[in-house]
Design a protein that fits this description.
The chain has 181 residues and is α+β, with helices and mostly antiparallel strands. The protein contains 5 helices and 7 strands. The chain has a 5-stranded antiparallel β-sheet with strand order 4-3-7-6-5, sandwiched between helices. A two-stranded antiparallel sheet has the order 1-2. The two termini are 36 Å apart.
Length: 181
């Protein structure tokens, strides 16, 4: 654990303000859930909570199946990092932080389809592939992650009615519904 030197007091309602610098560095947004941990030494630790992180093994099976059956390179993310991937190097993608462009793509709350004249969006820094299709995972009105098909092809063919696009939408919807029950 790293000391920040910042001290805050608890108010009469039991609230503590997390400084803006820390929220910005840790990418904590208004409304983000935080999990609270304690230990015997009296430490209280706040950790960003990722609801989709609980489905990591399930998401991994899902993307592995999409890759094996459809030969798609698929990535599942939460709001900040890559949770699982198939068809791409796990070393290059797994647990990597998302790019700002990809986070902005998620905020649109709609299907993204790469067009030949649009800029290429990388999911994470250092990745040699870019987003071909992406659909945010939405549960109970909140964006909790994204499912994306990535490619390294120079001029990939894209179509909103393609099987790949429909499979990405299906995966996103299915993962989102796992949290609503």
């Amino acid at each position: 654990m790293k000391a920040t030197g910042i001290v805050r007091r608890i108010d009469d309602l039991g609230r503590v303000v997390i400084p803006k610098e820390i929220r910005r560095t840790m990418r904590i947004r208004e409304g983000d859930p935080l999990e609270i941990f304690t230990d015997r030494d009296g430490e209280v630790i706040f950790k960003k909570y990722s609801p989709i992180g609980e489905l990591t093994s399930f998401a991994s099976q899902y993307v592995d199946t999409l890759h094996k059956i459809c030969s798609m390179s698929v990535v599942v993310t939460d709001r900040d990092t890559i949770i699982s991937c198939a068809g791409v190097s796990k070393k290059e993608y797994a647990d990597k932080r998302l790019t700002d462009d990809f986070e902005s793509l998620m905020e649109t709350r709609s299907m993204y389809i790469y067009k030949n004249d649009s800029p290429r969006i990388s999911i994470c820094d250092g990745a040699n592939a870019f987003v071909k299709y992406a659909m945010p995972i939405i549960s109970e009105g909140d964006i909790i992650g994204c499912v994306a098909c990535v490619t390294s092809e120079e001029n990939p063919s894209t179509d909103s009615h393609s099987t790949e696009a429909k499979l990405i939408q299906t995966a996103s919807s299915f993962l989102g519904r796992q949290f609503e029950s």
